[in-house]
Design brief:
This protein has one domain (10-148): Rossmann fold (3-Layer(aba) Sandwich), CATH 3.40.50.2020. The protein is built from four helices and nine strands; from the N terminus they run E-H-E-H-E-E-H-E-H-E-E-E-E. The protein has helices at residues 11-29, 44-52, 85-88, 104-114, and strands at 5-9, 34-40, 58-69, 72-81, 92-100, 120-128, 141-145, 151-152, 168-171. 32% of the residues are buried. Bound molecules: guanosine-5'-monophosphate.
Length: 174
């Protein structure tokens, strides 16, 4: 596996773009409070760096869903760690995701969140594989649109491995 990996987005490129996204969000919300809702586990690295660069009042919450086994999406979304209504109601929620692929996860999460009556819900994804969309979905903030590649690193795994890479790499096909 390791010999088939190629760097797609370097650590420097990631950090530069994350600073820009943090500014973009700050310009939209000014001094209003926002809740960054990190989609575990993949978005952990991105959420941490985004929040460290966010110069405004904010909170952290986490949700855990799963839909992937190995390289293949099962198509079913399982809510493994739910959110608490009191942390969502009346708040500005920004769902922070590692990657939008079929679009099912974020579409599901936005609908789930809306039932808890937040003040607003937006989505922020580090990566976006537009070509793979199965349901109609557009994230409000996107770090990098990418081609239809299986990527790992910076939180993204292959069977739980490689999340620790500080860059995004892709797995070359034979
Ligand atoms: P969606 O529901 O949009 O199809 O999938 C979103 C989830 O699928 C992501 O949070 C991520 O866990 C997983 N995923 C989609 N594409 C990739 C990929 O290229 N690499 C990895 N490691 N996970 C992916």
């Amino acid at each position: 596996m390791e010999d088939k990996m190629q760097i797609l987005i370097s650590e420097d490129e990631l950090q530069k773009r994350i600073k820009e996204i943090a500014l973009e969000i700050k310009n939209d919300y000014n001094d209003e409070e926002v809740v960054f809702c990190s989609v575990l586990k993949g978005a952990v690295f991105f959420t941490v760096d985004l929040m460290k660069n966010y110069d405004g009042p904010c909170y952290l919450d986490c949700v855990r869903v799963s839909s992937y086994e190995g390289e293949n999406s099962t198509g079913n979304i399982n809510l493994k760690i739910p959110l608490k209504k009191e942390n969502i109601e009346g708040k500005n929620i920004i769902v922070v995701e590692d990657i939008v692929d079929t679009g099912r996860t974020l579409k599901y999460l936005v609908e789930y969140l809306k039932e808890m009556h937040p003040k607003s819900v937006k989505t922020c994804s580090l990566l976006d594989k537009k070509a793979r969309r199965v349901v109609e979905f557009e994230a409000d903030y996107v770090g990098f649109p990418i081609d239809d590649l299986f990527v790992i690193g910076y939180g993204l795994d292959y069977d739980e491995k490689y999340r620790n890479f500080p860059y995004i790499a892709y797995v070359k096909n034979d």
